[in-house]
Amino acid sequence: MKKKTAEDIIRQYKSGYREFKGFTVEPPGNFAKLRLAGIILEGTNLTGANFERAILQRASFSAANLRGANFKGANLAKADLKGADFRGAVMRGVDLSGADLRWTNLEGVDLTGSIISSANFDGANLKNACLKDADPGKWWWKAKLADAKMEGTILPDGTLFSQPMLEEADTFVRQPVEVDEPLKPTGPDYKKADRLYYEGLGDIAGIQAQLQSGIPMSHPKVQDLIKKASKKFAQAMEVSDTNWPRFAECEKYATNLLADMKANTSK
Fold this sequence. Notes:
- The protein is mostly helical.
- The chain has 2 domains: about 1-10 and about 15-170, 3 Solenoid (Pectate Lyase C-like), CATH 2.160.20.80; about 190-265, no CATH class.
- The protein has helices at about 5-15, 165-170, 190-210, 220-240, 245-265, and strands spanning about 5, 25.
- The protein has a two-stranded parallel sheet.
- α3 packs antiparallel against α4.
- The longest helix is centred in the last third of the chain and has 23 residues, at about 190-210.
- The radius of gyration is 20 Å and the shape is globular.
- The two termini are about 20 Å apart.
- The relative contact order is 0.09.
C-alpha cells in the first residue's frame, strides 16, 4: 500500500489537491484544528491519526481504517463515512449532522454530546456505543437506523437500547399478526450489494493494517481476511448486475484478492 505522511497530505491539500485514496498515513498524522473540508480519504489507513477539532465538512472517509483516531470536537457534517472502521476512536462532541454512516463500524465508540441529526446509520454497527446527550434533532425515532446493530447501545436520553423495550413501546400502533416468509427479491438488490461492497473494503483495510504491522501475507489471519473480502465482493456481484455502478470495481477487487490468495497458498 502506498504511504504518505500527514505533512505530505496537508501540503498537497493547501495547493488544491483533494483526493488521497488508498494510502497508509505513516506515522499516525496530526490534522488537529485544520480546515480540510471536502478532502477525499477513501480506503485510507489513518490508524491513530489526530483530527481533534478539525473542519471536515463533506469529507469522504468511506471504507477508511480509523481505529484509534481522535475526532473529538471535529466537524464531520455531511461527511461520507460509509463502511469506515471507527473502533477505538475518540468521537465525543463530534458534529455528524447529515453524515452518511451506512455500514460504519462504531462498536463500543463513545459519541457522547455529538450532533447526529439527519445522520444515516442504516446497517451501522452501534453495539455498545454511547450516544448519551447526543443531539439527535427533533425526530429521533424517524432516524435512519434500518438494519443497524444496536445491542447495548446507550441512547441520547441515557436509556439502554433493548428490542423488547422498543416492541412494548409501540404495541398500541400494531397488533401481532402472522406473516408469510418475505419473498426473496426477484431483481437486483443494489442496497445489499452496496453493503457487501463496503464491508469488503473494510476487510481490505483490515488486511492492510495487518501487513503494516509486519504480519506476512501468508499468515492464516491475513488469508482469512482475504477469503472474507473476496466472498463479499462475489456476493455483491451475485445480488446485483452490470448496471450497478460498482460492479466492475467489485469484479476487479475479487479477482485481485483471489490471485493474492492463490499466490500465497502455492508457496
